[in-house]
Every structure is written in C-alpha cells, then in structure tokens.
Amino acid sequence: MITNYSTVVIKVRHFLLFSMILLFMSCKLLNFHEDIEIHLPGTENQIFQLHNFHWILQYRNSVGSLQTVLIDSSRESLFLQMEKGMTQAVILYAEFNGVSGNLFLTKPAGFIYGYNEAEIGQYVFDWEMGFESSLLLDLSGYMSLEQINISRLMESIEVEAECDNHWIIDGQRILEELLAGEFRSYDIRKLREREVEVTLPAGEWCNGNLTGEDLFSESSPSVLHIEIPSGFSSYINASGLQLEIEVGVDGAYDYILY
After folding, report:
1. Phi first, then psi: what are they for 94, rounded to 5°?
2. What is the secondary structure of 41-90 as a DSSP string?
3. Integer Rg of the chain from CA
4. Cα(234)–Cα(104) distance, integer angstroms
5. 118: helix, coil or strand?
C-alpha cells in the first residue's frame, strides 16, 4: 500500500514538473511583447547650451491611453515595452525653464516602432521624425496604425516638404482625411507662409522647431521681417525670454514676448 502511494506521489510530481515546463515554454512562445532600448536625440543644437532642460515622453499604452513621463536630461536612452508586429508612435519633447519660471517646449523628436529600423542594433529618437510621429500618435487614438501605408505616407511627406523641416506640412488636413477614409497623396500640402514683422531685443533666438531656422537680431530693438507658416511658432533667447507667434490661415498674426 505504501509502495503504491509513493509511486502515485512520484508520478504527480513528474506531472507537475512537466506541466510547469510546458507552461514556461508556452509563455516564451506566446510572448507578444519586447523591451527595446531607444537612444535619446542629439543635443548639439544651440538651444541645449543655453538652458537646463528635461525630456517629456509621450506614447500610448496597450489599451490606447496616452501616457506622459518626465525623463531626466542626463539619460542617454530609455527602455519601452512594445507589442510585436504592431506599429507604435512615440514622441519626446525637450522642456526648458524660461524667464520667471515660464516653461518652453520644443516640437518633439519622434520614433515609430514597426517603421524605424534599428541602426547598428540601436533605435534612436530623431528630430526629423517628430512631425510624422506626432501625427501618428494623434491618429492612434482613433484608429489602428495598421490600416495605414506608413512607408508611402512618409515618402510623400518628404517629397512635398523638400527639406528636413516637415512641420511646414498641414498635419491637420492629413489627420482629417485619414480619419474620414478619404486620404490621397495630394492631401499632403504645405502650410501657406506669411510675412510677419516682429520687434526683438538683440541676440540669437532659438527656434522651438529644431529642424527650422533660428532668428538673429543685430541691435536692440530690431525689426525683423520673417516668413513663417500659418500656425504657432515659438523661440527663446539666452536670457530665457520667449517669443510666440500665431499666424491664422487668413494671414492675420499676433505675437507676444514674455
């Protein structure tokens, strides 16, 4: 009787061990996520030499909720969990302290998982990918990015922009047409540029769009005539003074220094 009992116990133990091994192997085989390392973007731009800053990361979690995370500027990379086989857009802003504690936010750098290939085994945030990544991050709140031919979209934007600064493209029009299911390549159009007159103190004014052009005022005060696309543009100087310009589609504009 004791022998039979011992035999049963041994068989049960073997069964449990075998079951645990199968469970472990199943979990490995059915692992639909991967942890990837993404290196932070370059900080060679003059704006990073003038002020202290930190990073602001934005992405959508597995249920589609927008997540915002502060990242210390001393970091060189970060790790994110991505869903294998799914396209995911991630953006990264730099935030600076301006005069009297006013915050200054750049346009973001971007990374698109499922589109960006790892360079030498590394993924990297790119300032030139910020426009497309922001567009796709907004879009992913309403529809799956798998419904979009992202490669064709990216190529068409690059052709229309004709430069590294893709923020001159009308992103709102693209977003609306994609959501309506009526998007065509000819919907990718540049924003109309307007001439704006601003009066500025002397010095260099760094563009919050790191793929755009900075401003330089030779004297104080100095009247500048600049061509900028409709929408919102922002600049910051060495003392932390900020310039914000808003241009309407009708060409009317306003600006503020603070």
Report:
1. -105, 130
2. PP--STHHHHS-EEEEEEEE-TTS-EEEEEE-TT-SEEEEEEETT--EEE
3. 25
4. 8
5. coil
Whole-prediction pTM value?
A: 0.84
Three-state DSSP class for residue 38: strand
Q: Helix, strand, or coil here: 245?
A: strand
Tokens linked to 46: 């003059």
From 167, 245, 224, 228, select the one nearest 192 (Cα to Cα): 228
Q: What angle do CA 186, 189, 194 make, to 5 degrees?
A: 155
Over 138-181, what HEC string results? HHCCCCCHHHCCHHHHHHHHHHHHCCCCHHHECHHHHHHHHHHC
Helix (H, G, I), strand (E, B) or coil at 221: coil
Show the low-confidence residues of the chain (pLDDT under 50).
1-3, 5, 8-9, 12, 16, 22-29
pLDDT of residue 118: 59
Spatial CA neighbour of 229 closest among 254, 248, 255: 248
Which DSSP symbol is given to 227?
E
- Other CB atoms within a 10 A radius of the CB of residue 172 amount to 12
pLDDT in tens, 129-150: 999 999 999 999 999 999 999 9
| pLDDT given for residue 31 in this prediction | 57
Task: Report the C-alpha gap between 81 and 224 in whole angstroms.
Answer: 47
